[in-house]
Amino acid sequence: MTIPRLVPFTAALAALTTIFAPSAQAQLPPNILQPGRPGVPVTPGVPVTPSTPSAQAPAPVPGNGQPNTLTREEIAQGWKLLFDGKRLIGMRGIQKADPLAAGWKIQNGELNLPKEVKDTDRMTGGDLVTMDFFWDFEFRFDFKMTAAANSGVRYMLTENFGQVPVGLEYQIVDDVHNSIGLKGGNLRRTGALDNIFPRGENAVLRTADPLNKIRDPWNEGRIVVQGAHVEHWLNGEKVLEFELSAKVRQSAVANKMQVPASFGMKGKTRLSIMDQGTEVAFRNLKVLPLAPQAVIIPGGETVRPRGK
């Protein structure tokens, strides 16, 4: 009589695993799969394309102060690039599904919005908005204008489905040629909280006249929101500071603006770069999330940071 030989349990288990493996893909080495895209193989040596605009970018490499880079200190502090000179990172279009095909262009390390004569005063690329929301933050950006340019950076956004977000606007405008700045004075000029609070007399554009090609055409903008306190900076000078409260909305309504009830109040927000029908360019788009602070509003109510 032949006595059957017992198979060790571990060997039997290994055999069954091989027979009933879900797919050959499960046997691929982990480094063959795209980060953030489980189960999608890539060809070695070919750059990985993020599956969505919100995909995490590779860890930034410390720069040497050149545009669209972060220094070692900035990386350690937690700064995030939104534009690295070759692509948008963590930003998408609002009105346009593909803003880079619709009108925005990346050229020579700049995020440009060129306009042909027929496109003057028309939206082409549409507004851009960050994928992430921020409670307290510092946002820095360089901008360059053509003659009569008009753009802006919006924050403290009120967003309703199917509608363009409404929010506070750091004004960017050609103060010399555009009628908005000429007629509106410091209430409507670069660095102001557009049509709500005027900028200070210390606000100076590096090239007051965009047609003047002698001086550096790039200007440095900066928005700081910490608690209810907001600051606008222009070329290293603080040109405006105010507190988020109902007074912001009251000033807007007094200037004949139609705004929602939550306008000017504290909340988690995305950041938006605007297409207002004229040529403008940006670079060095970077944001630093700050430690969230609670906000005490009139009446004793406390507004505290909440998750997304």
Give the structure's gist in a few sentences.
By secondary structure, this protein is an alpha+beta fold. The protein is built from five helices and 17 strands.
Radius of gyration: 25 Å
DSSP strand content:
25-35%
DSSP strand tally: 17
Question: Given this structure, which CATH class is correct?
Answer: Mainly Beta
Mean pLDDT over the residues = 82
CATH third-level topology: Jelly Rolls
Tally of separate helices: 5
CATH superfamily, by name, is: Exo-inulinase, domain 1
CATH architecture: Sandwich
The secondary-structure class comes to alpha+beta
Overall tally of domains:
1
Helix percent band: 10-25%
**What are the secondary-structure elements, in order, as H or E?**
HEEHEEHEEEEEEHEEEHEEEE
**The biggest beta sheet, please?**
8 strands, antiparallel
Describe the structure.
By secondary structure, the protein is α+β, with helices and mostly antiparallel strands. It has one domain: Jelly Rolls (Sandwich), CATH 2.60.120. Helices cover 12% and strands 28% of the residues. The protein is globular and about 50 Å long. The termini are far apart. Residues 1-55 have low confidence and may be disordered.
Key features?
308 residues; alpha+beta; Jelly Rolls; eight-stranded antiparallel beta sheet; five-stranded antiparallel beta sheet; 5 helices; 12% helix; globular; disordered N terminus
